[in-house]
């Protein structure tokens, strides 16, 4: 493609050359499998609610797909994060390290535990938490006392870190695990966006103590709403199931609960959708990778912008295709958003940084130069897997 030096115009053309004239959504679900069959089975059996064979099957299918020893289905990804933090021992008054560049759920889950987020920077390569900057930050701001990481400035315990695999691109999880080890931190992976993404062949969400998934309507597969907790610790998996199902002790008729649990159960109807969607996941992943390759070819000659590619040694699910404007062209971001959306091509900037939101503005944070820069330069473009399966 010849570029005209008119960036918004060139971007509209590049998207249309791959995905057609639109209108195009940012990310549409696809229901071409056994969804109707399994939903009908639910209705016919009357098991539509929080008990049923599809819940069990979805959990075991998720465990086999991800390689986690245990998967527990829950009502959404935010609930999965909340329970993950509880199970990791996050208590009122603790701090939890998380990227400033994330979706609100990551920070809110920390607040639900009456803990405080402590925001850290991202790296441009993966868009996720920067392990080198994090180690620097902790080396200055924290000290180890009695095997606990204490924030010198606030006096609070930093209990855990929650890296997130942004738009499906795996974060440098091995380096983060090393930091977690050295500073006595639990590591929980927010893998809400990275179902199907792997690092050295191992599924994201299975490296830390616990990983969490989301099956919201805009994610790679959807159950309408839903989420899951992944863990390789079988005892922790049992605890996760227990406290997400009201902490009821099993009995033929007695209602006895042994702690304050949550009703975070995923209904059988939603799990039925999940089983049908998981069957199609390999095809979705193939199509999303094809879409990336076609966008990459189309954008190769557009100056001033590049497409974010999977980090070396990783396989990304390419959940959301991501344009990164050159730093010098960041001031054209809004013009690009206007031109594309006016043309019926749904595009979006990245989330406002968490530390800019009123409820988290006074939370502790590291210097955030890269996150600040990325927040000005990221644009997500139409990413539905169906676009990858259409002949160019
Ligand atoms: C989608 C998402 C979640 C969970 O969202 P739910 O809508 O509660 O399922 C959590 N973290 C990130 C980064 C997400 O993108």
Helix content: 25-40%
CATH architectural group of the largest domain: 3-Layer(aba) Sandwich
The end-to-end span amounts to 14 Å
User: What structural category characterises the helix and strand content?
Assistant: alpha+beta
Largest sheet properties: 9 strands, mixed
On the 0 to 100 scale, the average pLDDT is 96
Just give the CATH class of the largest domain.
Answer: Alpha Beta
Number of domains: 2
In CATH terms, what is the fold-level topology of the largest domain?
Aspartate Aminotransferase, domain 2
Strand % is 15-25%
How many beta strands in the DSSP annotation? 16
What global shape is seen? globular
As a whole number of angstroms, the C-alpha radius of gyration is 21 Å
Number of helices: 12
Concise summary:
With 392 residues, the protein is α+β, with helices and mostly antiparallel strands. The protein is built from twelve helices and 16 strands.
Question: Would you give an account of this structure?
Answer:
The chain is α+β, with helices and mostly antiparallel strands. The model has no long low-confidence stretch (mean pLDDT 96). α1 crosses α10. β2, α5 and β3 form a beta-alpha-beta unit. 37% of the residues lie in helices and 16% in strands. The protein has helices spanning 7-19, 35-45, 53-66, 77-87, 104-112, 131-141, 173-182, 234-244, 268-299, 333-342, 369-377, 385-388; strands spanning 70-74, 95-99, 116-120, 142-145, 148-151, 157-161, 186-190, 198-199, 202-203, 210-214, 227-231, 305-307, 314-315, 321-325, 348-349, 378-381. The protein is built from twelve helices and 16 strands. The radius of gyration is 21 Å and the shape is globular. It has two domains: 7-30 and 280-388, Alpha-Beta Complex (Aspartate Aminotransferase, domain 1), CATH 3.90.1150; 35-278, Aspartate Aminotransferase, domain 2. The strands form three sheets. Strands 1, 2, 3, 4, 5, 6, 7, 10 and 11 form a nine-stranded mixed beta sheet that branches. The protein has a four-stranded antiparallel beta sheet with strand order 12-14-16-15. The structure holds pyridoxal-5'-phosphate.
């Amino acid at each position: 493609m010849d570029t005209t030096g008119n960036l918004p115009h060139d971007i509209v053309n590049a998207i249309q050359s791959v995905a057609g004239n639109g209108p195009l959504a940012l990310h549409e679900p696809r229901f071409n499998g056994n969804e109707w069959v399994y939903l009908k089975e639910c209705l016919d059996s009357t098991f539509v609610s929080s008990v049923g064979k599809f819940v069990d099957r979805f959990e075991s299918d998720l465990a086999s797909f991800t390689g986690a020893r245990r998967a527990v289905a829950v009502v959404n990804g935010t609930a999965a994060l909340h329970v993950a933090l509880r199970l990791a021992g996050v208590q009122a008054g603790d701090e939890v390290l998380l990227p400033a560049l994330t979706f609100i759920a990551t920070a809110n889950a920390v607040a639900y535990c009456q803990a405080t987020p402590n925001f850290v920077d991202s790296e441009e390569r993966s868009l996720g938490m920067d392990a080198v900057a994090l180690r620097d930050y902790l080396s200055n701001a924290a000290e180890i006392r009695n095997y606990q990481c204490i924030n010198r400035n606030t006096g609070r315990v930093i209990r855990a870190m929650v890296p997130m695999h942004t738009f499906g691109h795996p974060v440098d999880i091995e380096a983060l695990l090393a930091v977690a080890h050295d500073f006595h931190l639990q590591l929980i992976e927010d893998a809400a966006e990275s179902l199907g993404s792997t690092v050295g062949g191992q599924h994201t969400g299975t490296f830390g103590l616990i990983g969490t998934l989301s099956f919201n309507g805009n994610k790679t597969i959807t159950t309408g709403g839903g989420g899951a907790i992944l863990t390789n610790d079988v005892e922790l998996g049992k605890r996760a199931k227990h406290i997400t199902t009201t902490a009821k002790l099993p009995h033929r008729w007695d209602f006895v609960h042994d702690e304050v649990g949550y009703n975070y159960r995923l209904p059988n109807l939603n799990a039925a959708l999940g089983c049908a969607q998981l069957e199609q996941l390999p095809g979705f992943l193939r199509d999303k990778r094809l879409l990336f390759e076609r966008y990459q070819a189309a954008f190769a000659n557009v100056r001033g912008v590049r497409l974010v590619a999977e980090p070396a040694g990783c396989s990304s699910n390419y959940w959301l295709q991501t344009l990164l404007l050159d730093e010098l062209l960041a001031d054209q971001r809004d013009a690009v958003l206007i031109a594309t959306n006016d043309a019926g091509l749904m595009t979006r900037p990245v989330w406002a940084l968490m530390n800019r939101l009123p409820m988290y503005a006074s939370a502790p944070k590291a210097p955030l130069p890269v996150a600040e820069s990325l927040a000005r330069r990221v644009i997500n473009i139409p990413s539905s897997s169906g676009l990858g399966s259409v002949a160019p």
